[in-house]
């Protein structure tokens, strides 16, 4: 890097025109902006977490129909009501199979709960964990208070349980065992013909659940898109507020002297490559025409405005102090009463990091 200014070993202190009351006001506003930035960081973290967890949709952006949360909830309720009606019709059709099985000549032992006491079956509940019978199934199928079956597969499972319990408790070859085995075979035969209807309903429900999940995801994504847009605008507003604060602070500090400019030039020669990149970035912000990628870079200190000079001064000061902590003896001065300007610079850097992480978009 080529410098157009001479260098020396000392960055002198200066005088501030900021009175105590004004300092407190600036300090208070800086603290408010700090809280503002912390809030933005929290919001940004939530948005980033959302986009890092969602799967990438295979559909093209133009085919994605974004709906609102309320619309999704309404559609989900409507879809659930329609699905419940279809299932009710399916269970009503299953009632034909139920009547055929319960009217069979072998069905009478299973029509009501097992009378354990009168039959003297003291070990029945030790063998059978979940008793079941046709009357209990019938009551569940006809329940109107919402406690009944919600899916035809629940009825199927209870029907099988009736026969499995009988075959589990009674010895093979006994009358009850044989009757249960006969009814189970007839039931499974009828169920085989009924099963395609159940499978078709399951397929419809699966597709509806996928559609509902996609709509919910799109609605949530739309919500986060709005949050991102608002966040982008807030970051722009924070940048504006920080710039105003910087101008206020710099306006109350005396101007950088020619001697200080020369001393800043000295510090440039002692900075690390990363720190030099920060210097170039600060200058480029003040002058968009400044070429940071040129093989030879010239910084005209005399044409830089005061805010930029103060930013460079504090960057240099911080860098040299870090080197001093590592054992290098570098004497630096500090502008009394301009501590607020340093704090503003640090928060501006935090906001710039936020801005770099968000999706690039114009301020709305």
What share of the residues lie within helices? Answer: 55-70%
How far is the N terminus from the C terminus?
38 Å
Shape: rod-shaped
The oligomerization state is: single chain
What do the pLDDT scores average to? Answer: 78
How are helices and strands ordered from N to C?
EHHHHHHHHHEHH
Cα gyration radius (Å): 39 Å
Q: Tell me what portion of residues adopts beta-strand conformation.
A: under 5%
- The number of helices is 11
Output the structural class: mainly alpha
Could you outline the blueprint of secondary structure elements for this entry?
Elements: E1 2-3, H1 20-53, H2 69-102, H3 116-119, H4 124-127, H5 134-142, H6 152-169, H7 175-251, H8 258-268, H9 273-286, E2 298-299, H10 306-325, H11 339-357
Parallel strand pairs: 1-2
Helix pairs in contact: 1-7, 1-11, 2-7, 6-7, 7-11, 8-10, 9-10
């Amino acid at each position: 890097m080529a410098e157009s200014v001479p260098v020396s070993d000392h960055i002198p202190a200066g005088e501030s025109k900021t009175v105590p009351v004004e300092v407190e006001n600036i300090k208070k506003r800086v603290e408010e902006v700090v809280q503002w930035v912390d809030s933005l960081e929290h919001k940004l973290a939530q948005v980033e977490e959302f986009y890092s967890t969602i799967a990438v949709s295979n559909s093209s952006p133009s085919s994605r129909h974004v709906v609102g949360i309320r619309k999704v909830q309404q559609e989900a309720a409507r879809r659930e009501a329609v699905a419940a009606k279809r299932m009710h019709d399916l269970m009503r059709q299953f009632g034909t199979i139920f009547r055929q099985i319960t009217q069979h000549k072998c069905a009478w032992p299973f029509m009501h709960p097992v009378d354990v006491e009168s039959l003297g079956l003291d070990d029945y509940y030790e063998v059978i964990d979940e008793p079941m019978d046709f009357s209990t199934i019938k009551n569940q199928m006809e329940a109107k208070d919402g406690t009944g079956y919600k899916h035809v597969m629940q009825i199927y499972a209870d029907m099988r349980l009736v026969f499995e319990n009988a075959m589990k408790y009674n010895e093979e070859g006994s009358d009850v065992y044989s009757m249960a085995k006969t009814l189970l075979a007839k039931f499974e035969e009828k169920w085989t013909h009924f099963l395609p209807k159940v499978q078709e309903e399951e397929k419809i429900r699966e597709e509806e659940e996928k559609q509902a999940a996609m709509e919910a995801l799109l609605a949530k994504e739309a919500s986060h898109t709005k949050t991102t847009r608002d966040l982008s605008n807030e970051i722009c507003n924070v940048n504006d507020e920080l710039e105003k604060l910087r101008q206020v602070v710099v306006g109350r500090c005396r101007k950088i002297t020619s001697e200080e400019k020369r001393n800043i030039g000295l510090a440039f020669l002692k900075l690390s490559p990363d720190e030099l990149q920060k210097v170039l970035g600060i200058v480029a912000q003040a002058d968009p025409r400044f070429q940071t990628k040129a093989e030879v870079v010239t910084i005209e200190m005399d044409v830089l405005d005061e805010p930029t000079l103060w930013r460079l001064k504090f960057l240099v000061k911080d860098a040299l102090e870090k080197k001093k902590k590592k054992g290098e003896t570098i004497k630096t001065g500090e502008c009394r009463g301009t501590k607020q300007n340093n704090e503003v610079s640090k928060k501006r850097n935090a906001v710039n990091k936020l801005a770099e992480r968000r999706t690039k978009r114009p301020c709305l």
